[in-house]
Write a structure and sequence with these properties.
heterodimer; A: mainly beta; six-stranded mixed beta sheet; 11 strands; 59% strand; globular; B: seven-stranded mixed beta sheet; 50% strand
Chain lengths: 111, 114
């Protein structure tokens, strides 16, 4: 069964304190790994897609990396506006377009 | 509209009643997805549409749940004889085509069954 596990469940940082969020996955065949950001009361907002081990993508203070078993979302010098829940999901080979999501990491950045 | 629109934003219903949740995708998006988000749980896949066809309905929890899409646009998720465990946020997303990874989500419908 395809599974996605995110850690930690919650993370508190001071503004400017860099850190990383982890997403571990087990799938029969990886079609892609996706990162989303979700603010309270809103739908998820797409951040990145990674397709193969070694791939990296960046957007502002965020950088996503991928290995064969996990992905990291690195946050450099975070600001309070980066506070949100970050969701990781995998798409699997085999025809279905469904994504399997982790439970997310709730990030709080204090000023 | 500019984004995916879902209605109603909130729905409180009595156990045993039927409910309909509506999703208006972004114009021109051929793929449409329904997910459910329960408190403390990750997003759970329900069903997706390519045009008006639903190739994968495997996530629908029971036969009380059904969905349709008409005109390659609006989709309706219907829950019959609602139960308390159906309480959740129901999220709809659309993308320009399948395998287009940038799926845009609506704000969701918060369903509470009392």
């Amino acid at each position: 069964e395809d599974q996605v596990t995110q850690s930690p469940e919650a993370l508190r940082l001071q503004e400017g304190e860099s850190s990383s969020l982890n997403c571990s996955y087990t799938v029969s065949g990886l079609r892609g790994l996706f990162w989303y950001r979700q603010d309270p009361g809103k739908g998820p907002e797409f951040l990145f897609t990674l397709y193969s081990a070694g791939e990296e993508k960046e957007k502002e203070r965020l950088k996503a990396t991928l290995t064969k078993k996990e992905s990291f979302l690195h946050i450099t010098a975070p600001k309070p506006e980066d506070s949100a829940t970050y969701l990781c999901a995998v798409g699997t080979q085999g025809g279905s377009e469904k994504l399997v999501f982790g439970k997310g990491t709730k990030l709080t950045v204090n000023p | 509209g500019a984004g995916v629109s879902q209605s109603p934003s909130n729905k409180v219903t009595e156990k045993g009643k039927d409910v309909e949740l509506r999703c208006d995708p972004i114009s021109g998006h051929t793929a449409l997805y329904w997910y459910r988000q329960s408190l403390g749980q990750g997003l759970e896949f329900l069903i997706y549409f390519q045009g008006n066809s639903a190739p994968d309905k495997s996530g629908l929890p029971s036969d009380r749940f059904s969905a349709e899409r008409t005109g390659g646009s609006v989709s309706t998720l219907t829950i019959q004889r609602t139960q308390q465990e159906d309480s959740a946020v129901y999220l709809c997303a659309s993308s320009r085509q399948l395998r287009n990874t940038e799926a845009f989500f609506g704000q969701g419908t918060r369903l509470t069954v009392v």
